[in-house]
């Protein structure tokens, strides 16, 4: 019987992952480990599939996308934009949904890596995963802080947070709540929160950020928003962290007979084509999805060509002025 | 230099695809072609990567999903449901967006096949692609008629079309338009159209189905709906082929000061969690996404175990009675 990968691992007294990394020349490994694995490969006369792979074209022409969930319209439209643009350049995409689960994210990453994609575009929200340190795989991140080596493409979250807060204040809201994700996550979206809190303080208003988990259902979220109105009966403005949350808040307000914009001003975030088409009344901050996709691809291609790139690319956001934030300051 | 796949192809005077098919034992090939390719492999002493692959575990534990676009909430939620359930069973998913482009669909299919997924769940809308005839890859289709060998999981589109049309008629609408995709496509959604047309005729009403292309933008669709109201000023009911279209129609009606439900009754289709959460007023037909995902996986697993399956699995739909279809028959 021919030797298997796991035989090599056993022989060298290392994990299968380590053998795989040596074979693919990826990840941080000591020279000692590399030598030990190579020796085991020789002694067992193991024939790895990479050799066979190199008989083919070495490029796979596949770009991996790793997103929390494409069921969120922001990621759905981002995935679509990336797919269209990459296809025009001769690449296909394969998408993994991490569901913001770091175990899942890590599994997908290993899988995508072991399937040898030419590059990876990551838009997930989990904390630093070691696999992102794989050395020879070009990676760019969208709207997420990875590690120092990986360039991040993002929209101007600080400016977006400021615009959103300002539009509420300018139209007369004083008791403004901001909903955001857990503070531990290292996302550029944290800057929206910072901008909100700084802008509130600059106007002598008290910031109040309510954190929501990502993975809860629409029904659970609605329940939280119901409770929010109970806990803070004086709310007159909400800056929601995304448009889906804003749409749910609109719905809850309607069911509770809270009039928007008369009693409550509301601003969302993301401004996808879908939201603007089916809920054009919702004031929101538009993230430039198409430009972000374009930039992510440009930077990824640079990385694939071993060219130097910046660490961060910040693209401008714009305000979509709907009717949910219009109220005369006198009111 | 070691021989490559293309050297084998040249030597045997066949395409690279044909060589790949022989190596993977897939697709319809004559014995003559198979012999010719095998002879070329022997003469050149070509070593295909499948051999090396078999040194590893033969299972990839990856299921491929091929959908038109995850930017549509129905497919976004379906992909999420499939991903969650498959992950629990130890599988990961990779998603390809075909954008209803048969060239793209075919490219993805070849790619997914060449990456040797363990199985494939297809929800695209294009016409018969030859690759679906690959023999050794377990495939199930969702909401799409493939070929005779591939089981289809679908919701009860005829019943859904009938329910949608009935609710409009029961509330007093007479000039009812149905929007649907191009009639050439062999989708079970065609049964919605059939149900609409038969139900209209059974009530002595004249059916009028307007066909829309899939790949047009929200803006283009809105333009079409604007024109629709111009062309048919007497419309008092619309059965839209999906909720996104219904949401756009709601928006166009609002902009044209057509009151819903007073002047126009409206029913959508799909009833995703998202639609029901952010647009609960929209009457729609709920496709049981979760159950469809569950069934698709059960059937795929059966196919992977070489067990027999039915040709078609039809799951029940339900009516979501919102306010867009409520009008007293007297009106």
From TrEMBL, chains A, B:
Top-level division of the source organism's lineage: Bacteria
Domain HTH lacI-type: residue ranges: 3-57
A Pfam family of this chain: LacI
Keywords: DNA-binding, Repressor, Transcription, Transcription regulation
Stored SMART domains: HTH_LACI
Classification via InterPro entries: HTH_LacI (IPR000843), LacI/GalR-like_sensor (IPR046335), Lambda_DNA-bd_dom_sf (IPR010982), Peripla_BP_I (IPR028082)
Keyword hit for Transcription regulation: yes
GO molecular function: DNA-binding transcription factor activity; transcription cis-regulatory region binding
This protein's name: LacI family transcriptional regulator
Taxonomic lineage from the root: Bacteria, Bacillati, Bacillota, Bacilli, Lactobacillales
């Amino acid at each position: 019987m021919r030797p298997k990968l796991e035989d090599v691992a056993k022989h060298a007294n290392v994990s299968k992952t380590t053998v795989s990394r040596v074979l693919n020349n990826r990840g941080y490994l000591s020279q000692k480990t590399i030598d030990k694995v190579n020796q085991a490969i020789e002694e067992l006369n193991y024939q790895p599939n990479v050799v066979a792979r190199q008989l083919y074209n070495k490029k796979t022409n596949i770009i991996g996308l790793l997103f929390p969930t494409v069921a969120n319209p922001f990621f759905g439209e981002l995935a679509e934009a990336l797919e269209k643009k990459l296809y025009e350049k001769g690449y296909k995409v394969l998408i993994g949904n991490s569901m913001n689960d770091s175990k899942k994210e890590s599994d997908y990453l290993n899988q995508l890596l072991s399937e040898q994609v030419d590059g990876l575009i990551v838009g997930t929200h989990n904390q630093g995963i070691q696999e992102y340190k794989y050395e020879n795989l070009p990676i760019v991140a969208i709207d997420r802080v990875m590690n120092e080596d990986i360039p991040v493409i993002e929209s101007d979250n600080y400016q977006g947070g400021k615009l959103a807060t300002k539009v509420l204040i300018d139209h007369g809201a004083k008791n403004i709540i901001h909903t955001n994700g857990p503070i531990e996550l290292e996302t550029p979206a944290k800057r929206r929160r910072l901008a909100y809190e700084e802008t509130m303080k600059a106007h002598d208003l008290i910031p109040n950020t309510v954190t929501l988990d990502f993975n809860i259902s629409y029904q659970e979220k609605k329940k939280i928003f119901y409770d929010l109105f109970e806990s803070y009966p004086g709310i007159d403005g909400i800056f929601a962290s995304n448009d889906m949350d804003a749409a749910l808040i609109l719905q809850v307000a309607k069911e509770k007979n809270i009039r928007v914009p008369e009693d409550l001003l509301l601003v969302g975030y993301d401004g996808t084509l879908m939201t603007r088409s089916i809920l054009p009344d919702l004031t929101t901050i538009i993230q430039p999805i198409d430009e972000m996709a374009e930039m992510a691809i440009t930077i990824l291609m640079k990385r694939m060509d071993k060219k130097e790139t910046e660490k961060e690319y910040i693209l401008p956001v714009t305000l979509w002025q709907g009717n949910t934030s219009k109220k005369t300051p006198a009111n």
